[in-house]
UniProtKB/TrEMBL annotation:
Residues 1-22 form the signal peptide. This is EF-hand domain-containing protein. Residues 147-174 are annotated as: Disordered. Residues 162-174 have a biased composition (Basic and acidic residues). It comes from Pseudorhodoferax aquiterrae. It comes from the Bacteria. Keywords: Signal.
Length: 174
């Protein structure tokens, strides 16, 4: 009898864990709440909720937010050195963007290419040390600012209950 190798078992285990994390309410419930996942991201409350509301309950706790950011960071760190190169950073984003396009039945277009170009620009901004090594600490600084900016009522949860500030007051937070 053939035994599966370790990489096949690891991939299967990862798929099971991700399925469990994405579990929560059924697809019908998520659709009823009108909150489809938007893995490519974007700006504003809708994109934030779509990207980080792991259990699809209409709100994002700091724990949900941090867990997804950590998962993305670790998955992007393909060589395991603890930081992201520009190539790793852009590849992680491109994977989420491809999934978003696939989920909506779209083919990559000019907007897709522009988003990839912008990911390269963003790397230059988020890599505050300007050393080509985007660290977890740099990511956490962005996460703190983002979450605090969207949690406008200060209850530790981002939801539609948070009054949204005008865009100019949120600059850099979403």
């Amino acid at each position: 009898m053939n035994r599966p190798n370790a990489s096949v078992l690891a991939a299967l285990a990862a798929a099971i864990v991700l399925s469990a994390c994405a579990g929560g309410p059924s697809r019908a419930t998520a659709t009823a709440q009108n909150q489809p996942a938007r893995p490519g991201g974007g700006h504003g409350l809708d994109a934030f909720l779509g990207s980080y509301d792991a259990n699809r309950d209409g709100q994002v706790t700091r724990a949900e937010f941090d867990a997804i950011r950590l998962q993305r960071f670790q998955a992007a760190d393909t060589n395991g050195d603890g930081w992201l190169s520009e190539a790793e950073y852009v590849a992680e984003y491109e994977g989420r963007l491809k999934r978003q396009y696939f989920d909506t039945g779209r083919q990559p277009d000019a907007a897709y290419e522009n988003n990839i170009k912008q990911a390269h620009v963003r790397f230059g901004i988020v890599n505050r040390a300007r050393d080509g090594q985007f660290t977890w600490a740099e990511d956490q600084a962005i996460a703190d600012k983002t979450f605090t900016g969207l949690d406008s009522n200060g209850d530790g949860i981002v939801s539609r209950a948070d009054p949204q500030r005008p865009r100019e007051q949120r600059a850099g937070n979403d």
